[in-house]
Amino acid sequence: MREVSGFFAVGDADQSIYAFAGANPDLLESLTRRADVRTIRLRFNYRSGAKIIRASLGALGEERDYHGVDGAPEGDLSFWTVPYGHDSQAQAVADTIIPKLIEQGFDLGQVAVPLSRGVARRQGRSRPQGSRHSLRPN
């Protein structure tokens, strides 16, 4: 009887925003270069609208064959200019951006803010000083 072993990996190297949690997109990329690995690239994005897909392609700086599904909402993008640095960015999110999203009718359950664990903890607090909205659940 022949012994068969296998390895199965799923990932998206473009999701490098999760580096703050230890993700390393280079590991996945190194797998795709191996001759004994078959790579299957998925073309459809089921969770983002066309505006967000186009913006992400622009941010990546290269053309990809990514598409949304027919009939999906276009989606919406908003940009705010904030000062450089984690603390000032966290302060702007808590004091300006989240209140504006609430004014636009967003529920807090619809808002996600990727934030490095060390940003607020460096100063021993769960939210920037003077903010009304926590950046993480209590």
Task: Describe what this molecule looks like in 3D.
- The chain is built from 4 helices and 2 strands.
- Strands 1-2 form a two-stranded parallel ribbon.
- α2 links the parallel β1 and β2.
- It has a domain of 61 residues.
- The chain is mainly alpha-helical.
- Helices cover 30% and strands 3% of the residues.
Distance between the termini: 56 Å
Q: Assign a percent range to the helix content.
A: 25-40%
Mean pLDDT: 75
Tell me the fraction of residues in β-strands, as a range: under 5%
Strands in their spatial order, largest beta sheet: 1-2
How many runs of DSSP E, i.e. beta strands?
2
Order of helices and strands: HEHEHH
The count of helical stretches stands at 4
Estimate the global geometry from the Cα principal axes.
Answer: extended
What integer value in Å does the Rg equal? 19 Å
